[in-house]
Amino acid sequence: MEKQKIRKSGVLMHITSLPSKYGIGDLGYTAKNFINLLKKSNQKLFQILPIGPTEPFFDNSPYHSVSAFAINPLFISLEKLVDSGLLKGDLSKYEIEESNTVDFEKVIENKFDAFRESYENFKDSDEFESFCAENSFWLEDFALFMALKRRFGNVGWFDWPSEFKNRDTAALNLAKETLKEDIRFVKFLQFVAYGQFMEMKKYANDLGIDLIGDLPIYVDLDSPDVWANRELFNLNEYGLPVKVAGVPPDYFNENGQLWGNPVYNWDKHKETGFNWWVRRIAHLLKFVDIIRIDHFRGFVAYYAIDAGRENAKEGEWIKVPVYEFFDTIKANFPKCLS
User: Fold this and answer.
1) String of DSSP letters for 79-91
2) Are 64 and 48 in contact, with CB atoms under 8 Å apart?
3) How many other CB atoms sit within 10 Å of the CB of residue 138?
4) Cβ neighbours around 287 below 10 Å, total
């Protein structure tokens, strides 16, 4: 007899939208309070938006992340930092008047003041070293990228000096030495965010609640994912997109949607056995129980617009090696497509 699937209900609530005294939701007690509410309401699902670090340039949208692998450090709970002994003193100085919107500028200022104080109290541990080793495939490039971005005034990597833009080995090795404290600080934030996230997930799962995560199909040009893997994207010799992502005109928008993300070099992804995608999905599955793919259509064929266009009226649909891709995903994650 075929096993029947049981329907479940839940709530979509991004981490940043949870109520908090500190101007933004976090992975600490605000998240636990919401999970308790879900439990009392007999809900079984807690859906969140993408968890990557965001940029002010894109209004801190979770769909425009600096990384396909990192966690937004603004998710870190200050109260949990106090509990761990990393942050001392009264937290009232970090409180922000309650509002229906997040004042990201103030939140970032407050939280990074607290993060730097916590970092000064942080000592190396076997747990930290293990985290860095296990996540080195993305963390090394991400931490170096963020340190270099700060050094070069927050401009995009494609506008960095050529030796850094083009990842000259000698230049990068020198940067790793001169910026080692900045790099370690970035790794520290990811270590703390990872620990708090896993604690939140366990709390939810122990109450019978699954987390649904969100995986946007595209990544931003100004990210370590593109900087360190230029061959996986359709870029020109200067590191800029040849074509960009979007969708054509429809009933809702006569100009279509011009997203601007670089599109993938799917031939190269196929050649590498879709390894980047396998790692990306495996990494996200550490944090969530179910993955929602944003713009699933793009895995069959994607709409590509010549870079430099002002709208998405003129573009073309380009096929993706869809069967090879999903055969690979199913082989690596047999339960994902069940």
Assistant:
1) HHHHHTTSS-S-G
2) no
3) 20
4) 17
Radius of gyration of the chain (CA): 21
Alpha carbon of residue 238 to chain centroid: 25
**What are the φ and ψ backbone dihedral angles of 87, each rounded to 5 degrees?**
-120, 130
First to last CA, the chain: 17
pLDDT digits (tens, 9 = 90+) for 90-113: 899 999 988 889 999 999 999 999
Residue 308's DSSP bridge partners are none
Q: In this structure, what token pair is assigned to residue 95? A: 């409180």
Q: Read off the pLDDT of residues 286-337 as tens digits, 9 standing for 90 and up.
A: 999 999 988 888 999 999 999 999 999 999 999 999 999 999 999 999 877 5
Tell me the H-state helices in the chain.
29-40, 78-83, 104-120, 126-134, 136-151, 162-165, 169-178, 180-206, 224-227, 266-271, 275-284, 322-332
Q: Which residue has the tokens 């100085």?
A: 93
Contact (CB, 8 A) for 313 and 248: yes
Angle at 185 between CA 179 and CA 191, to 5 degrees: 140
For the purposes of burial, counting CB atoms within 10 Å of the CB of 249, is it exposed (0-12), middle (13-18) or buried (19 or more)?
middle
